[in-house]
Amino acid sequence: MSGARSYHAGFAAEDQVAQFYDRSGRAVCARRWRGSAGEIDLIARDGAEVIFIEVKQSKTHAMAAEHLTPRQMARIYGAASEFLAGEPSGQMTDVRFDVALVDALGRIEVLENAYAA
After folding, report:
1. CA–CA dist 94, 46 (Å, integer)
2. Which GO terms of the molecular function aspect are on file (predicted)?
3. The pLDDT value given to residue 2
4. What pLDDT, on the 0 to 100 scale, is given for residue 1?
5. What is the pLDDT of residue 4?
6. What is the rounded distance in angstroms from the CA atom of residue 6 to the CA atom of residue 110?
7. What are the respective helix, strand and coil percentages of the chain, to the nearest 5?
8. How much is the pLDDT for 7?
9. Contact indicator for 33, 40 with CB cutoff of 8 Å
10. Three-class SS string for 57-91?
11. Which strand ranges, in their side-by-side order, compose the sheet holding 27-34?
């Protein structure tokens, strides 16, 4: 039961984050986009820039952040590269990788360009 509950909590968190980006004028163009390298939770656009968003949900923002592993980041990079192959500027497209943390109260903290660190 906990697996199903976790799945639904993750899905609800993705919905909240998608609404957050949409309200800020950065339209979500894909949800749970899947390539051969892996899945990207959300993809948004801010003008010509493509934003790849990994959503992590847990009791606190700190606990949510702990769920992101280097292996997962590598998969997201691989999938993002596949997505960019379909863009007009290909790999030269301006991109950003955000991590959106959602706590048990539904509060969202977005770490913009999180993978640059």
Report:
1. 10
2. nucleic acid binding
3. 60
4. 42
5. 65
6. 20
7. 40, 30, 25
8. 65
9. yes
10. ECCCHHHHHCCCCHHHHHHHHHHHHHHHCCCCCHH
11. 27-34, 39-46, 49-57, 95-102, 108-111
